[in-house]
Amino acid sequence: MTNRRQFIAGLLATGLAPRSTWADVGAPAFLSAAARDDGTYVLCGISAALDVLFNVPLPSRGHAAAAHPTRAIAVAFARRPGTFAHAVDCATGQVIATLDAPQGRHFHGHGAFSRDGTWLFTTENDYEAGQGRVGVWDVAAGFTRADEFSSGGVGPHDIKRVPGSDTLVIANGGIDTHPDSGRTKLNIATMRPNMTYVEDGRLVETVRLEGEHHKNSIRHLAVNADGRVAFGMQWQGGGPAPALVGLHKRGNSVQLLSVADEALRHMQGYVGSIAFAVDGAQIIATSPRGGMVQQYDTDTLTIVDQNTLADASGVATTPDGVIITTGTGKLVNLHGHHAETVENTTLRWDNHLVPLG
């Protein structure tokens, strides 16, 4: 017998289901996964004023989410190396579809919708071949798998759509993993991270990190309205990281941001999330390992500010400041050195704060 979830997915496929918009669920500014004190997991909508507008139960720990551009639908991805994702109607709390990675694949915790919301793209690892793939899912058909293409590298993690286009940019971290080995990294000595741009499933540009940076795993991305891409890295080598934040625009060379050795050490070789300021003048990077938030000038490519914040990870921006979520349960509105903190001790925020709009 068709169960409720299958019934809802069928309605979506026929276009008969009510189409709730983000305004119908309080017009949240952000989405974030979180853990409750009782060990259960939720996906939350958060307002620009840092109010939690809704929370939708998740069956396991989430990592990041992809928000549909118009409808109140989010896809919550399991933490790497998860093999499933859940499409959630944020108005009803119903899981309307479960996405299962194909045999021999696992997800990497991130995804992105096409500009019109017709397709969902997911980063995946073909772990037997040791190659990155991008899955293509048909939203109107109940998130059924329609196609796939190469990510252009190994270990694709984050994926973003360039605003105003359907160009995808993919962070290929360069790290090979296999579910039989859990989260063990299998190829550190030979890893080669890159960042790729894809249009209609076709690779159109590849940006590589060479020399001393070949162990600098490109993990997380932020894309500005003018097409500039900021990327955060996680150092896999011995000794201090040579850099942790970079900037790129198609057709140009990579620019690595300059940071004094002491400030670089504060990040402990690890960027958890990254964002542009609304005006594009700064890049903000967090390090949950270092308990640090750093801000960089996009013109001078230098660090201009830093703040200590335990287990800081999720980051997004508004015209009024920088929003940080922490694994200790804090929502922080950062204005320079002034931090306005709202604590929610029943929620421990996961790695990413996903902006809507």
Please give a quick description of this structure.
Helix content is 5%, strand content 49%. The protein has 357 residues and is mainly beta.
Layout: helices, strands, pairs:
Blueprint: H1 4-14, E1 30-36, E2 41-46, E3 52-58, E4 62-67, E5 73-78, E6 84-89, E7 95-100, E8 105-113, E9 119-126, E10 131-138, E11 144-150, E12 156-161, E13 168-172, E14 194-199, E15 202-208, E16 216-223, E17 229-235, E18 245-248, E19 255-256, H2 261-266, E20 273-276, E21 282-287, E22 292-297, E23 302-308, E24 312-318, E25 321-326, E26 330-335, E27 338-343, E28 347-349, E29 354-355
Account of the protein in words:
This protein is mainly β and 357 residues long. The chain has one domain (21-355): Methylamine Dehydrogenase, Chain H (7 Propeller), CATH 2.130.10. It is built from two helices and 29 strands. The chain has helices at 4-14, 261-266, and strands at residues 30-36, 41-46, 52-58, 62-67, 73-78, 84-89, 95-100, 105-113, 119-126, 131-138, 144-150, 156-161, 168-172, 194-199, 202-208, 216-223, 229-235, 245-248, 255-256, 273-276, 282-287, 292-297, 302-308, 312-318, 321-326, 330-335, 338-343, 347-349, 354-355. Strands 1, 2, 3, 28 and 29 form a five-stranded antiparallel sheet that branches. Strands 4-5-6-7 form a four-stranded antiparallel sheet. Residues 11-16 have low confidence and may be disordered.
